[in-house]
């Protein structure tokens, strides 16, 4: 099953648009895991098990693993996800962007090494920096469009022919780059009006929407702005608010994560109809 | 010594603007290294030793290591470079770009884990995605501006207020982002006229210039367009043309790499005066 079909099925099966981000930060781990050699894997597996029936996708952020030299642990976590929850899409958040020959190496990293169903990429270097990922015909390519950080406006809001650059990117991807139906876009939850603009441009294309939770995006405004006519079309990501829901609670971190994940899923669902 | 000073010293000491890129591709390794467990490290160390007196910088491309699961080998190679050739800047080509908290993780990866003197980054997410790298005050931040691939024009050539986007990025970095004098830009050799435009905007800011060698950029046009008044200001990168100068030559791969590196350095130097 390809990425888009797998995502659509997960929206239905788990009645959820929630994407659970996996950003392991050792300093925020529960005390009983501090100093354990397999803390990252133990922590992430517990979060996955606690939320797998509530999520439409899992999204490991590779930077957190790379900073710790923990690629082997990321491999283990991805292997666990693919085998235990093969129906939940695995999105590798890597935001890669490089010339074709190098992009091919990054595609091997994401799809062959980690077995991701989809990977995030940066559009600044153009279509030939994105095309190599599409050789993996069953995988998804999620292109940065409008990001959730304040500085995103520095380039993305520049005026190009009367429209901001991010809308140009949305149009480029929807009309040209998405030849094989593999594309999705990253559009932050911090700008609901812009999310609505992108939705109007790209039809039913899936949107990965970070910025809810620790980044402060408003759930109601986000869902109303970004949903498709069918009330889906989004992976609304929350990472830190779920992972570190009970930073001082010792053994209960997974239960706390589940509670927040369920609250977030349900809050989202209230505005899908 | 900070990155810019170290680079300036290397330009002088080695009388060179040549940056040697390290893109290990196992399928192009000499036959006697094929299948050896330490082939990547052996190959890269031999290239480094053969060219260290000819280069102003070394630039490992992290994608080639990531595709192979060879982060430990990259650590070894970086450690070797820093210890044996501490006067030659180590540029990690990673083209990272993410929100602040995540960018901080990528900065830890580049600067603490690999000990890079500088790292390449993508400007699409704006200043707050670049700023975290600047906390490492002695390191360099090399921002993508005009890339050497054909598809680079898709976004970088869009008209923003009468000028192409890449010139806007050059101006942003030169006038706003380069607060601490840590910044450099990536400008491809495949567009000498655009290289000249960037040089006119950014003064003496160092430029990392890929696209000479396997990518076909013209050395004379590149040097004339990109040099500073002092005849320097560039890291002109060549990777594959040096690394795989003698793909069938067995033991002589390092000697062949040295010959091509010397020819390239000397060709560059002919047009610096």
Automatic annotation (TrEMBL), chains A, B:
List of catalytic residues: 95
Read off the SMART domains from this record.
OMPdecase (SM00934)
- Which Pfam family, just one, is annotated for this protein? OMPdecase
Which pathway is it part of?
Pyrimidine metabolism; UMP biosynthesis via de novo pathway; UMP from orotate: step 2/2
From the UniProt record, report the name of the gene that encodes this protein.
Answer: pyrF
Superkingdom, natural source:
Bacteria
Write the lineage as a comma-separated list. Bacteria, Pseudomonadati, Pseudomonadota, Betaproteobacteria, Burkholderiales
> Per the UniProt record, which EC number(s) apply here?
4.1.1.23
- The UniProt record lists the Orotidine 5'-phosphate decarboxylase domain at 17-253
The broad enzyme category this protein falls into is: lyase
Which controlled-vocabulary keywords does the entry list? Decarboxylase, Lyase, Pyrimidine biosynthesis
Q: Which GO terms describe its molecular function?
A: orotidine-5'-phosphate decarboxylase activity
**Catalysed reactions listed for this entry:** orotidine 5'-phosphate + H(+) = UMP + CO2
Give the family from UniProt: Belongs to the OMP decarboxylase family. Type 2 subfamily.
The record's listing under InterPro entries reads: Aldolase_TIM (IPR013785), OMPdecase_AS (IPR018089), OMPdecase_type-2 (IPR011995), OMPdeCOase_dom (IPR001754), RibuloseP-bd_barrel (IPR011060)
UniProt-listed GO biological process terms: 'de novo' pyrimidine nucleobase biosynthetic process; 'de novo' UMP biosynthetic process
User: What's the protein here called?
Assistant: Orotidine 5'-phosphate decarboxylase
